[in-house]
Amino acid sequence: MSVTIKSQEEIELMREAGKILATTHEELAKAIKPGMSTYQINKIGEEIIRSYGCIPSFLNYEGYPASICVSVNDEVVHGIPRKDCIVVEGDIVSLDAGVIYKGYQSDAARTIAVGEISDEAKKLIEVTKQSFFEGIKFAKEGYHLHDISNAIGDYCESFGYGVVRDLVGHGIGKKLHEDPQIPNFRQKRRGIKLQAGMTLAIEPMVNMGTYEVDWLDDDWTVVTDDGSLSAHYENTVLITKGEPEILSL
């Protein structure tokens, strides 16, 4: 496993990529309304990314056909935007997006409410987001990678939620997916020792029911095995000697 340590110059480019991605997510969250198609959501997202002179990371990545992964309700990740998929009041929508700025990547995801949603759905979104922040308490030099995994998993499971095991976070830099893999659930081993200059995409994917998932026939869309709701929260994080820096907020 070779985990890249970024130079100051590389970190600066990733910082800029992260800022643009954070803005993209903010704009998308404002734009989504009941009655929109997931195709429209993707179109708006791609236009925002390109307006900053960036390239959408996901478009044509290993054949993925869109710029924004739009996953609705029981879809965990990698939902393919479609003209015939309309979001309605009460839905929750996970948006996963990436940008490439001058050759460097940022990756982030948010789950947002469409209009008024149930209290159970609100809680799932809040816990998923908070689990990321529980995890990054350990995202600093001197800790081990799986300290992050354990903190995320333990927090989510304390609410009775299922933490997805078939998909994990990852290193990021010039490539969208670099070493190391970052599980979101408790590990037996400690994992690598974290060093300043590592950049990680930490992304809890949390289901209201079982942690088990299935892939749809499109080979991309991942859904919960039991049809329960799923939420996703992700940021690109820089390890430093002190507190971690969240590049995509």
Task: List the defining traits of the structure above.
four-stranded antiparallel sheet; five-stranded antiparallel sheet; single chain; Creatine Amidinohydrolase; 249 residues; alpha+beta; globular
Notes on the protein architecture:
- The protein is of the alpha+beta class and 249 residues long.
- It has a single domain, classed as Alpha-Beta Complex (Creatine Amidinohydrolase).
- It contains four helices and 15 strands.
- It has a five-stranded antiparallel β-sheet.
- β14 (235-238) and β15 (245-246) form a beta hairpin.
- The chain is globular.
- The two termini are 28 Å apart.
Strands side by side in the biggest sheet? 8-7-9-14-15
Q: Which CATH architecture would you pick?
A: Alpha-Beta Complex
Mean pLDDT: 98
Q: Which structural class should the secondary elements be placed in?
A: alpha+beta
End-to-end separation = 28 Å
**CA-based shape:** globular
Classify the beta-strand content into a percent band.
Answer: 15-25%
CATH class (first level) name = Alpha Beta
Q: Radius of gyration, rounded?
A: 17 Å
Number of strands: 15
CATH superfamily, please? Answer: Creatinase/methionine aminopeptidase superfamily
Helix content: 25-40%
CATH topology: Creatine Amidinohydrolase
What's the SSE pattern?
HHEEEEEHHEEEEEEEEEE
Low-confidence stretches: none
Instruction: Report the major sheet.
Output: 5 strands, antiparallel
Please work out how many helical segments DSSP would assign. 4
What count of structural domains? Answer: 1
